Amino acid sequence: MTTRAIFLDRDGVLNHPVIRGGKSYPPARVEELKIYDGLRDQLQRLKNRGFALIVVTNQPDVARGTTPKSTVEGINAAIAREIPAIDRFVVCYHDNADGCDCRKPKPGMLLAGAVEFDVDLPRSYMIGDRKGDVDAGRAAGSRTIFVDRGYSEAAPTNYDYKVSSTSEALQIIESESDHEKS
């Protein structure tokens, strides 16, 4: 039996990003991490309904030499302690010029998670706060939910839902999951 998954971007979806000049950046240190309220319980409910919870995150500052890989891993570990329902973190450490298959907007991280957890991509969701997240979800064949945080950058135009918070995105998935059962 195939699994449904919720693919979650990290910065701006699970935790507050650092905003500079209207753009979103990851926290520079574990101590700066602030997870959005209420996600632990919502994600646990969805996991109890059979969803795999897979974080897919671009972390190009490692390739750029401005953030140690250990910092990214430390932030991921802190999120995992706070939200133990998360099944896996899939991280792309490459920069744009590296030409990898994993860096969003390419769907490589979602496809890797789909193989590992035997995911039914058309019945799964990608939640992201940037155009690349939504484009990766669409390229993988998943439903997409854009969390509009009002950044000063090009927003996606082709998504299934647009919301203003991760909590609202998870409520949509819960509601759709309820309708599929009945």
How are the secondary structure elements laid out?
Elements lengths: L3 E5 L9 E3 L2 E3 L13 H10 L2 E8 L10 H14 L5 E5 L15 H10 L7 E4 L2 H10 L2 E5 L13 E3 L2 H16 L1
Parallel strand pairs: 1-4, 1-6, 4-5, 6-7, 7-8
Antiparallel strand pairs: 2-3
Helix pairs in contact: 1-5
Main attributes?
alpha/beta; 182 residues; Rossmann fold; single chain; 8 strands
Structure report:
It is a single chain. The strands form 2 sheets. The protein has a 6-stranded parallel β-sheet, with helices on both faces. It is globular. With 182 residues, it is an alpha/beta fold. 33% of the residues lie in helices and 20% in strands. The protein has one domain (4-181): Rossmann fold (3-Layer(aba) Sandwich), CATH 3.40.50.1000. It is built from 5 helices and 8 strands; from the N terminus they run βββαβαβαβαββα. α2 links the parallel β4 (51-58) and β5. α1 (39-48) packs parallel to α5. The model has no long low-confidence stretch (mean pLDDT 96).
